[in-house]
């Protein structure tokens, strides 16, 4: 960027007027070339090993859009969404309980979080699955009565196991978010005559969301992967379908790769969604937000009216 | 405009402790309707705490505190006091505007949304009308062109003026100012004081905790010097500031003037 201001009038303004630009020989980094070569060689050998291995790669495209796989994908997504809904609603409830002045409710919330966060989710899933050993029937009076084993479908087991476990984690995330909002905010709101509920809903929670959303996005992505555990309680998610196909078609490992590819696709899409949700809740927090990738592409294509940064 | 009228705020032996620390040790004072009442004193003297007691952000431990003739935070029946419900406290706070040292604007709302929030949420005003009114108020504090800005896009002085407009939107009969210019750069203080001066001229009853002695002298109708949780000296601001009687007042004023 050495623009010569004084001599731009002539078309051949070659001799620079300012001090001569430094032309030094840069420091060499031979170590970087060596480490790059080693890393590439290791990567290559791993790829070679897989290519040489006894894996029938053609089986993956054959089954990629198989009906059973697509069903499994939908079931995995459904389970992720429903479990997260249970987790978020339960988490908000538990967070408010923990922050309440009532010692009974706050202790119950503490105990819940202690228990569900302290035991493995796989163990919890099996406990729900086998609760028929404790309760032979489920009896809700005149509303509903059935054998526990037929009441506790794989979907319900999976939802309870994952959702209730998630609520414990979401509770801590929500609590941190609520505590992150400056006390002056609720004071100002109360001073205006707003009630506790209105203060929470209109003033505190929208600001807490900025702290709550990023870890919640992580939780969603985590949940999507954790749903693979529910194949253990016979729920037909992506992993179970892939496993079943693999065992019948004699291509076990291939189907694991296929499942991994589907999980990667889904988590990648979720990451993009998370990016935009975070932007929404960051409004008002900084003078201007960096442009989104889409806006950057537009800016590059249409250089004439390039935005200087999108105002919040 | 400032007819000698009934007391807007009346304190009788107000005590307040935080744990073992006694912050207010028996405050007696009276703020008349239409008056600009200034509270000065060293930090830690309890003046901000007293201000926060007036709209029940802090609960007093002893004494009686009245706003517009009614007890703050309690209802008296016979010789028994009953605590007010949260909703009843909120109802009383509608009539008392408060401006904070740290502005406390809602950062996720634009200036105009900050101002219209309480009229819409608390008084149930129609959004369109509330927005019009909010714009008028912003124009009144000299920020008619900043309605769409978020607080982070405003200077400290502008934020404080939005905060004043936000408090005025509830049509309060009493305004409390808690060191409104202490967090501002010196060159921004004047704009905020100008707005407060206009407000005083319009007849608003104002209780102002401040370190701006010039403002107290020019605009104030009464002044109280507090130290260590008690009222040391009170009277006309011009008298107290130019001719303090008590040695603690003299020592304080010699440092700040």
From TrEMBL, chain A:
Keyword field: Amino-acid transport, Cell membrane, Membrane, Transmembrane, Transmembrane helix, Transport
TM region(s), chain numbering: 33-53, 73-96, 108-127, 147-165, 255-277
Domain of life of the native organism: Bacteria
Positions with biased composition (Basic and acidic residues): 1-10
KW Transmembrane (keyword) present: yes
Membrane-topology descriptor: Multi-pass membrane protein
Start and end residues of each stretch annotated as Disordered: 1-20
Gene Ontology terms: cellular component: ATP-binding cassette (ABC) transporter complex
Main localization of the protein described in the UniProt heading: membrane
Annotated compartments: Cell membrane
GO biological process: amino acid transport
Domain ABC transmembrane type-1: 73-274
Signal peptide: none
Entry's Gene Ontology molecular function annotations: transmembrane transporter activity
NCBIfam families noted in UniProt: HEQRo_perm_3TM
Entry's family note: Belongs to the binding-protein-dependent transport system permease family.
Assembly and interaction partners: The HisPMQJ complex is composed of two ATP-binding proteins (HisP), two transmembrane proteins (HisM and HisQ) and a solute-binding protein (HisJ). The HisPMQ-ArgT complex is composed of two ATP-binding proteins (HisP), two transmembrane proteins (HisM and HisQ) and a solute-binding protein (ArgT).
Protein name: Histidine/lysine/arginine/ornithine transport system permease protein HisM
Taxonomic source organism: Streptomyces phaeoluteigriseus
Taxon lineage: Bacteria, Bacillati, Actinomycetota, Actinomycetes, Kitasatosporales
């Amino acid at each position: 960027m050495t623009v010569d201001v004084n001599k731009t009038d002539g078309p051949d303004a070659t001799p620079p007027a300012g001090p001569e630009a430094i032309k030094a020989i840069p420091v060499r980094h031979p170590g970087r070339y060596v480490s790059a070569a080693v890393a590439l060689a290791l990567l290559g050998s791993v790829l070679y090993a897989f290519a040489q291995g006894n894996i029938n790669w053609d089986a993956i495209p054959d089954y990629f859009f198989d009906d059973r796989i697509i069903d499994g994908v939908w079931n995995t997504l459904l389970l992720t969404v429903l479990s997260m809904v249970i987790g978020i609603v339960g988490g908000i409830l538990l967070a408010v309980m923990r922050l309440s002045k009532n010692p009974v409710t706050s202790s119950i919330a503490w105990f819940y979080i202690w228990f569900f966060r302290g035991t493995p989710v796989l163990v919890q899933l099996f406990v729900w699955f086998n609760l028929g050993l404790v309760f032979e029937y489920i009896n809700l009076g005149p509303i509903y009565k059935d054998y526990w084993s037929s009441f506790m479908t794989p979907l319900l087991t999976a939802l309870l196991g994952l959702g209730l476990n998630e609520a414990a984690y979401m509770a801590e995330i929500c609590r941190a978010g609520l505590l992150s909002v400056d006390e002056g905010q609720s004071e100002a709101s109360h001073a205006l005559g707003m009630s506790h509920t209105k203060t929470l809903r209109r003033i505190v929670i929208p600001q807490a969301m900025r702290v709550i959303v990023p870890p919640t996005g992580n939780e969603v992505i985590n949940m999507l992967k954790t749903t693979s555990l529910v194949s253990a309680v016979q729920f037909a998610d992506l992993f179970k379908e892939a496993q079943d196909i693999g065992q019948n078609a004699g291509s076990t490992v291939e189907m694991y790769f296929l499942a991994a590819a589907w999980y990667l696709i889904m988590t990648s899409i979720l990451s993009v969604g998370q990016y935009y949700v975070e932007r929404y809740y960051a409004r008002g927090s900084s003078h201007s937000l960096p442009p989104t990738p889409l806006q950057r592409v537009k800016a590059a294509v249409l250089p004439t009216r390039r935005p200087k940064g999108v105002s919040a | 405009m400032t007819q000698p009228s009934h007391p807007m705020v009346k304190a009788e032996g107000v005590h307040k402790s935080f744990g073992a620390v006694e912050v207010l040790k028996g405050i007696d004072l009276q703020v008349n309707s239409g008056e600009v009442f200034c509270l000065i004193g060293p930090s830690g003297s309890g003046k901000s705490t007293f201000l926060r007691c007036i709209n029940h952000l802090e609960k007093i431990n002893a004494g009686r505190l009245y706003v517009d003739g009614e007890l703050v935070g309690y209802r008296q029946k016979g010789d028994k006091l009953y605590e007010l419900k949260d909703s009843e406290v909120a109802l009383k706070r509608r009539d008392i505007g408060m401006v904070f040292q740290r502005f406390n604007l809602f950062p996720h709302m634009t200036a105009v949304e900050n101002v219209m929030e309480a009229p819409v949420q608390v008084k149930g005003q129609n959004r369109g009308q509330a927005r019009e009114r909010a714009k008028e108020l912003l124009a009144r504090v000299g920020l008619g062109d900043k309605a769409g800005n978020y607080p982070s896009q405003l200077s400290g002085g502008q934020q404080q003026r939005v905060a004043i407009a936000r408090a005025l939107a509830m049509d309060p009969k009493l305004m409390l100012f808690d060191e409104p210019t202490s967090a501002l750069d010196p060159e921004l203080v004047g704009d905020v004081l100008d707005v407060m001066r206009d407000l005083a001229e319009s007849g608003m009853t104002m209780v102002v905790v401040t370190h701006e002695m010039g403002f107290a002298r020019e605009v104030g109708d009464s002044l109280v010097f507090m130290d260590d949780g008690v009222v040391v000296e009170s009277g006309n601001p011009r008298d107290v500031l130019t001719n303090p009687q008590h040695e603690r007042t003299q020592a304080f004023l010699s440092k700040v003037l």
